[in-house]
Structure formats: C-alpha cells, structure tokens
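Good morning C.,

I know you're traveling, so I'll keep this short. The sequence:
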Amino acid sequence: MIWNLGSINIDNFYGLSHLPQPGETLAAHSYRQGLGGKGANMSIAAARAAARVMHIGAVGPEGGWTVNRLLEYGVETGHIAQIDVSTGHANIAVDQSGENSIILFTGANGAITESMIGAALAEASPGDFLMMQNETNGQPFSARTAKALSLRVAYAAAPFSPEAVAEVIESIDLMVLNAVEAAQLEATTGLSIGDLGVEDVIVTLGSKGCKWVSHTVEKVFDAYPAEAVDTTGAGDTFAGYLVAALDRGIAMEDAIDLAQKAGALMVSRHGTGDVIPDLKEIQDHFG
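The tokens, ready to paste straight into the viewer:
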C-alpha cells in the first residue's frame, strides 16, 4: 500500500498564445478549472496504476469537491482533513507548444500537523510505501516516522529545494527528480547523484527519457514518442506510476517502462489530475 503525504490544489488553467514576459498583460483564449497538486496527481496516478493509495493531506472549506474527486478516482481519503485555511491552488499558464508557467499558493497544504500524519502512518504496515513531495509541510517528521515503521520512502524532490532534500535524504529509498533539479543537487552537495547514499534515483530527462542510478546501475531509458500539448502533471504521473508498480512487486526496469508510457500519454492531454491515464488506456495505446 502507498501512503502519500501530498498537496491538493484547485488548478486554474489559462490558455495563452505565449508565456507572459515581465510587465506584459495577455488575454487568455481559454480557461478551465480542475483538480491538481503534485500530491493529488501522484495519488491518482498510483491508484490508476492499480495500487491501493491513502492520501494524507488537508483542504479548506471550499475544497470538499477535490476530496470527492479523489475518491471517485480510487484514492482513499480517510486521512484528508478539512481545516479553516484556504485550499491550495495553482494558476497555470499554458502556451501553444504545451509549455507552462505556474503560480502556486500553498494554503491548507502547509498546515498539516504531525498528529494528522502520525494518525495515518500508525495504520501502515512494514513494507508499505510513504510517498512525498515538497508542496506540503511535514516531510522530515514523516520520513523519520516511516523509517521507524519499516516503510519504504519515495520522494519526488519538487518543487526543488536543496534544504528540503537535506532534511530527508538519510531516510529516502527512492528519489525522483528532473535533470535541472539533479544538477542543482549535485552543485549544492558536491556529490554525484550516485554518491548521495540513496538506494535508487530516477532522473527524468523530458523528451529524452530518464536515467536510473543506483549503487550498482546507471542506465538510460529512451522516451516513448509523444505529441506534447501540455506537460503539466507529466512528471507527477511518471512518479505515481513508478511507485505503484514497485509497490505491486514489479522490477525497477519494468516499473520505469510503465511510468514512461504513462508520462508519454499524459503529455498528449490538456489537464492534470482529471486526465491521468489508467492502465487500460496505456495498454490500448501502446499494445
């Protein structure tokens, strides 16, 4: 089972001819609202990859619909608290090539207490996964608690912060980050990715695929062809599918392959949590 300490956001999407420059005002040609947040996206992806997922998080008074939506997508929601802080949200500008720019408001995602986290993880079993990102508070406490309970800890190091990574890296079994984040981490620590002491590190390389680095392996996986219209949520989809596959006992190379397929299909769609593909869609698309 996967226990995901993760953000829940209300996503506001604005379609633009190009991403705005400083001081520039642009009229959006489209607008829509949906469920997002790196945490919610990863929970949905893991659930759609046939894993059992319990989301640990918080929403504000106006966020009840986001919890219901997660439940509809197969995510267990018994440890999502409703508190008197506005639900997190993201304003997402997407240009005609699919690139995006995001303004993020943390809201309730930054008000999760240790007691909320502890109550959830007290129900976990040894060998379960704890999954985390950097869009909530509570990662160091969660990581320490998870290791004490013999859980495996998977960490998507985004939004990237060297300080945030330093606080949890000793407890991490699996880390997922992109090429820019990997370069920043190497520059900050003075260590190569393979020397960080993390058992498995996956560096996503966008259209070039990804790289798996462990104590004994360094292997690059080519990306699957994809016609990208919106890259939002693709990395979250990859991470959720990867952890779900590993939780189901699938070998790392096959888990990466499945996650690559999910990410490739995701970038061909407009949206975030609401359009993450399920296993049948992946099987139908890739054969």
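Safe travels,
E.
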